Amino acid sequence: MNLAQLYHCFKNSSGVATDSRVLKPDSFFIALRGEKYDGNLFAEKALQNGAKYALVDRPEIAEKNHQFILVNNTLEILQELAKFHRKTLKAKIIALTGSNGKTTTKELMKSVLSQQFITQATTDNLNNHIGVPLTLLNFEEKTEIGIVEMGANHRKEIDFLCQMAQPEYGLITNFGQAHLKGFGGIEGVIQGKSELYKYLAATQGTLFINIDDPLQEKWIIHHPHFSFGTKSTADCCLDYITEKEGAQAVEIDGKSVKSKLYGEYNLTNIAAAIALGKYFKLKHEQISNGVFSYQPKNNRSEIIHKGHYKITMDAYNANPSSMQASISAFINSKKKSSTAILGDMFELGKYSASAHQKITDLLVLSDIDQILLVGNHFIKTQFKDPRVKAFSTLEDLLNYVMENPLKAGEILIKGSRGMTLEKVLAQL
Question: In terms of residue numbers, what domain contains 246?
Fold first, then answer.
């Protein structure tokens, strides 16, 4: 069966599914393989649960049912189907990447642009070599703007995703200390993320550039581009209204755009969404409504009030850059008794020990009242401060919090996704 025939099967289905437990009736199930799983083993279950077709890449499995479609590599076919589908779409594709703030910026952009256009965007964390094709295949014919979030942990990955998504527009949120192990250091991060701008420069796409960022400002020599920032030379000139206690706001054309986001680090995320709105000719009221209607969730800069605690829940992910930004914002905004609960940062490779030590040192220099660190990396950091306690496992931390209730006040919870620090909430 050739690619066109496979695409016909996809179009006759209710959409792609990769989880046999959660799929719509008449889905096109694609059996993907990983280090610890093999979707081929669940292809039969997918059909029993209502799938119309099942794409497999193991011949002995394919023989069992006429609804199985055998290919050499299901992942490669998923990616090829996504490319094929992309070419049929009339939607303008906006790609965004960066070390920090990708998902928040993506959601803000979607909220703003949806005020005028039929807009779809990446859901959950579907931003890698599997997630991007799934995102593209989810875009509908009626979609006018598609926003594709792109994550990467090594060079050439963003370029690969661009070749698949073929964006006409692109935005890099920032260049930070994320996935240092795969990128080989901060210079590798800059080169890897910049693959988006290089792709757009080569294809005459439009670059959205934060002109306040020296690493991005140099890209304004490429055309076309649209810049934003506090400099008067920006195409979208704005001012940041820094709120120490309340939600952040941005001023543009003498008018305020308010948000429900806390932390100064979110100001550039808001600014990026405003810039997109201005570029696509939205009215100020539409941009303002779009920004303000976005409610942070999924452990991303969430403010949670529970009993006597005001909790800043920012535990979806963490790297040295985002960790420092969260800590600084927490220090600047807190008013009452304060506690910081921080979990390990992953994928830092040889930079891990020094990165965790720097965070510990930053905390020791702060006026945070109580500091609880958890993880195999934080437990190895050096400190001589009675305010600091370190635990090797989350279970140890939870037991400590249960036996030693935290003082009423403000709490910051920050760590990599794999640390599952949201479990701390149950103990508060």
Answer: 89-293
Q: Is the pTM of this model over 0.90?
A: no
Q: What is residue 344's three-state secondary structure?
A: coil
Residues in the chain: 428
Q: From the CB of residue 85, how many other CB atoms can be counted at a distance below 10 Å?
A: 19
Measured CA to CA in angstroms, residue 425 lies from 311, 340, 401, 411 at distances of 9, 13, 10, 10
24, HSE (Cβ side, Cα atoms, 13 Å): 9
Query: In the listed set 293, 326, 356, which residue is the last one of a domain according to the structure?
Result: 293
Residue 194 lies in a domain: yes
Q: Structurally, how many domains does the chain consist of?
A: 3
Q: Closest Cα to residue 262, out of 310, 329, 331?
A: 329
282 falls within a domain: yes
Q: Is the peptide bond before 224 cis (omega within 30 degrees of 0)?
A: yes
Amino acid letter for position 390? A
DSSP SS3 for 338: strand
Torsions phi, psi for 333 (to 5 deg): -100, -25
Mind listing the pLDDT tens digit for each residue in 325-364? 999 989 988 888 999 999 999 989 999 999 999 999 999 9
